Structure formats: C-alpha cells, structure tokens
C-alpha cells in the first residue's frame, strides 16, 4: 500500500515542537505490509465501538490510549506567598528568566526551547550563585526584582511555542516583557552577557537587610561543688 506522507508532515518546522522518532522505521514497514493504517484528524466524539472524527469517519477501536499531552504545573504546583498573600505567577514578569518580579529571595531555572536545555540552565545557576555571593559580601539578606509599572507584556515565558501543553498553561505561566532583563531571548550569546558578564547590582534589583536578631545573653557558668 502507498503511504500518504501527509500523515507524517507536521504543521510546524523541525524542532519548533517535539519530533516523533520511529526507531528502525518499523512503523513504516508495517504500513507497507498493510498490517497497520494511519488516520489523521481531530476527534469529534468517542463512541461505544471507537472514535468518530470531525470528518465523519469512524475508526473502530478495541483499546484507546489517550495521549493528548501533559498539564504544566509551574514551579511544580508549589504555592508561593509573600507576606501571607498567595502569588499568582501569571501576574508577574520574569527578571532575566530567573526571578519573578515582586517575589523576594526566589529563583528558578528554565532552559532553552530552541537549544540544549542545560545551556541556559547552567547560565542561570551560575547567575544565582553570583547573586548570592554579592549578597553575602555586602551583608544583604533580601533581594527582589521590581519592574516599572508601565513595563509592556509580551506573552508568557514560552510565548514562541505553540505546543498544546504550553497553550493550555498560558494562564499559569509567568509573563515576559519586551526589552532588557524582562525579555526572554532564548539566545545563548545574549544570555552570556545578560547573566554571566553583567553587573549584579542594577536598577531593577532592590536589596535589603533584615533587622539584626537580638542575641541571647550567654548563660552563666555554674561551679560544681563536691
């Protein structure tokens, strides 16, 4: 049987989204032998005996495996609070794609979507270490990124992706700006400058010191009598 290539031609360019790899090409071997077939369509409904497509075609099925993608939980679903108030990540901009504006002493690691994830993860981790070293040297105990009130918003941190799981999570993901430290570039050379070579202290970061803790008075030594 002839295999229609339309079933294996995605709407996106290679690596714009994930590629499905068939080891050893065994799927195509089965298709050529007529032992398997492919239907590409959107699902209208499940029926007692299978699946009905939007085109009206019915596909009989004994087993249906639902593989529609994952549901993203930013920060692993952990609830953050600042002064007792819950933080909605979707209402905050990201600073250098490492911190959330308005949230003190919190950093996260995100990699690239167009290159090796670890390239950006390494840069981000090194930046956080530089930030902690800077705070230690100057006696700071808090740091928070503050964006200008009029900073424009340009979608989520993964705004360039059209994957279903990213689109479904748009109301949960932090936002990005359009310029400077608020823009997520997915550009290794640019991030080397932004994270690795720039000064830690800038106008967007506000550092502070917690009030000195009251030191407990040393306990008096007691002499033991024999």
Fraction of residues in helix:
10-25%
Q: Any idea how many domains?
A: 2
Shape, principal axes of CA atoms? elongated
Q: What gyration radius follows from the Cα positions, in whole Å?
A: 26 Å
Secondary-structure-derived class:
alpha+beta
Extract low-pLDDT stretches.
213-217
Strand content: 5-15%
Strand order of the largest sheet: 1-2-3
Strand segment count: 9
Major sheet: 3 strands, antiparallel
Mean pLDDT: 87
N/C terminus separation:
102 Å
- The number of helical segments is 4
Order of helices and strands: HEEEEEEEHEHHE
Features of this protein?
two-stranded antiparallel ribbon; alpha+beta; 226 residues; 9 strands; 2 domains
Describe this entry's structure for a reader.
This protein is an alpha+beta fold and 226 residues long. It folds into two domains: 5-60, no CATH class; 74-208, no CATH class. Helix content is 19%, strand content 12%. It is built from four helices and nine strands; from the N terminus they run αβββββββαβααβ. The protein has helices spanning 26-32, 117-138, 164-168, 188-197; strands at 43-47, 50-53, 58-60, 81-82, 85-86, 94-95, 99-100, 142-145, 205-208. The strands form four sheets. Strands 1-2-3 form a three-stranded antiparallel beta sheet, with no helix packed on it. Strands 4-5 form a two-stranded antiparallel sheet. The protein has a two-stranded antiparallel ribbon with strand order 6-7.
